[in-house]
Each structure stands twice: as structure tokens, then as C-alpha cells.
Amino acid sequence: MKIGIDKIGFYAPHLYVDMNKLAVARNVEPEKFTIGIGQEKMAVAPITQDPVTLAANAARTILDDEDKEKIDFVIFGTESGIDNSKSAAVYVHQLLGLNPNARSIEVKQACYGATAGIQMAKGYIALNPESRVLVLGSDIARYGLNTSGESTQGAGAVAMVISADPKILALEDKSAYLTADIMDFWRPVYSDKAFVDGKFSNEQYIHFFNTVWEQYKAKSDLGLNDFEAICFHLPYTKMGLKALRTVLEEADEADQERLLANYKSSTMYNRNVGNIYTGSLYLSLVSLLEQSDQLKDGARIGLYSYGSGAVGEFFTGILQPNYREYLQAESHAELFAARTEVSIEEYEAVFQETVPVDGSTVEFDATKDTAAIYLAGIKDNMRQYVNKSN
């Protein structure tokens, strides 16, 4: 039985900042942002968008009535959780009107959370072939204004339906994974901003990739020539390229050219959204599938997931017949085209507007938020969500 991604979509907030202008404002050469780390635009989440609304907005565009009835497991991967007890998945379940006879949970391991959700979903579908699982990766990356990590911020979510006989990507059985207790990136419960040792984190990202890649080759007897493309978790688009270059010499020139060309296609969306933590790898996958004209049905795609702290995994999937018919390329193009650029001053003001943590009752102005689902305010310590499409 084939199990894998039946549907996939993403959502990013309607505001963004131009990285060239951010560089100028921070007295940095623009090329450091646009070429050095490979970012052009950074999505900015207004106060009316949080990880719950981002995920719900990503999912609502891909689900039909049959999905809503058959989905009986919602797995929400995030490192931007809004509650220490109640899972973000429960909110999304209600906002989307899913079958009440369902399980809903939140999974945490830095940027690896959505991958853990997919692997969990795969096992669940193997036991329950008629079911469908909604896996969400949703985050708002925050390092702070005028910090070294500011240029690798972002906001957005990816939603995937995992099922038997998937229409887009069938996941293969073999994978390789690694855990090590390191402090390359973390966010204590008392902080709304992350702490990061950037150089060490980059080194560990590549070390983990090299390790799981060697393990995967030993398990599968496959090599680079067996892959049409490899997608990477992308905290910034140059990061995956650094890792890919460490193994490119294993391939001949034609394979190298193909892998590099498809890598470029896989970064186009991330380059214009920024880092979305748990969703970054899957935003890269969406970008590859919708932007590459070289992919063919039956091609093997590699996926490298890395979550600081740290857990890494390399796994694979096979593109299914006529997979392009089930993508959301047109709606994603419209999403990008409808976004609004904000000035540096406006971006800084939005960044500093945060949800109160003292129990205050507050109502947010959502008149400028174009999303169907948004956060309307806080009342009695409870977030008030609105779905305008209901």
C-alpha cells in the first residue's frame, strides 16, 4: 500500500519587507542578505496572525468536504506554540469544521516537528487505510530587531493531507535519522525570541546531513544519481546549498547540473517568505513541485529535515502519475501577488506589537488583514479566532 502526501498547500501573511531595504537600514551591504544568505523578501505576521491562523489558512485552501469527514487525526508541528497545555491542532480542527471523531495533538522538536508528524501519520494510515491525517507545520520566526538572526526571520505555514494512494508523493519506507543533545538554537519558555549560535548551528546542520546521508545510502543502496532532486530544511536558502555541495562530487556532471537546477527551483518560495521553521522543508517541496519544469512522474525526491537541539532525518518519496494536476500553483501565485510591502518603520512597529501576556482583554483591528481566518483578540485569557469564510 502506498502512503504519502495527497494534498499540500501553504499560506504566508499578506505583509512583507524587502531584504535590500532592510540591509540598508541595518548598514549592511544588500548582497549579504540577497546573495550571502539568499533571501529577497521576508514575510511579516501582523498581530492578527499567529501559528494557529497561519496553519488554518494554509489548510482551508486544500481541504474539501470529503477530507473534512475522513480526517480523523490532526498533527500540528510547531515551535511557536501559543499554549503550554492545549494543542494548536484543536483550534485548527474547530476552525476548519473537521469531523469531531478525531485525534488532535501538537508535536515539538524545533524545525523537525512536521516531519515527526508525517512519520507518525504514515504509521497511522498503515493501520487505518481509510483514514486521512492533516499534518501542519506553522511558525513565526523571531530573533529580534537589529540582531544577527533578524534577516532569517519569517512567518507562514504548510498543510498536508497524508493518505493511502496519495496523488502527489508516495513516501518510501527507508529513512535515516539522528539525535544529539546540542545547544545550537533554543527558546526557553520565558522568551518570545530564540537564542542561536549561528556558526555552530550551520556546522551541525551539515554534520547531521552528512551522517544521515551516509546511513541512508547504506540502508538503501541508492546514490545521488537515483534522485531527481533533494529538498532541504531552509532557515535561509543558502543553507541547503552548503549541505548539498558537500556530497555533489559523488555525482557525475549531468547529475550535478540537474540537482543544482532543481535545488534552485526548490528555494524560490522560501526566498520570498523567509524561515518558517517546521514548515520550511515542505515550503521548499511545494516550490520544487510548482516551479520546476524538469520533474517527471515517477521521479524520486529526497528530503532532509533538521531540527536544532537536534534531530535530523533523510527520507524519500516518489512523484505520482499526473501529480501536477493536484498542486495549488495558481492560488499560490495569487497569494504572492496580493502581498503588500511595508517600510522598515512599519515592519518594526508590527514586530513590536505583541499579544499581551498579563491576561488583558484586547480587541485587534483586523480590517487590513486579508486572510479568511484571523485572531480577533483576547478575552478572559482566551484567544478569539474568526473564520470569515464560514
Approximately how much helix is present in the residues?
Answer: 25-40%
According to CATH, the homologous superfamily of the largest domain is Thiolase/Chalcone synthase
Beta-strand residue percentage: 25-35%
Q: How would you classify the helix and strand content by structural class?
A: alpha+beta
Overall spatial form: globular
Unreliable spans: none
CATH class of the largest domain: Alpha Beta
- Do you know the CATH architecture of the largest domain? 3-Layer(aba) Sandwich
Note the total helix count.
13
GO molecular function, one term: hydroxymethylglutaryl-CoA synthase activity
Domain Hydroxymethylglutaryl-coenzyme A synthase C-terminal: 180-248, 261-353
Domain Hydroxymethylglutaryl-coenzyme A synthase N-terminal: 2-165
Family: Belongs to the thiolase-like superfamily. HMG-CoA synthase family.
Describe what you observe in this structure:
There is one protein chain. With 390 residues, the chain is of the alpha+beta class. It folds into two domains: 227 residues, Peroxisomal Thiolase, Chain A, domain 1 (3-Layer(aba) Sandwich); 153 residues, Peroxisomal Thiolase, Chain A, domain 1 (3-Layer(aba) Sandwich). Helix content is 34%, strand content 25%. The protein has 13 helices and 18 strands. Strands 1, 4, 5, 6, 7, 8, 9, 12, 13 and 14 form a ten-stranded mixed sheet that branches. Strand 10 and strand 11 form a beta hairpin. It starts with a strand and ends with a strand. The mean pLDDT is 97. It is an enzyme of class 2 (transferase). This is Hydroxymethylglutaryl-CoA synthase. One of its GO terms (molecular function) is hydroxymethylglutaryl-CoA synthase activity.
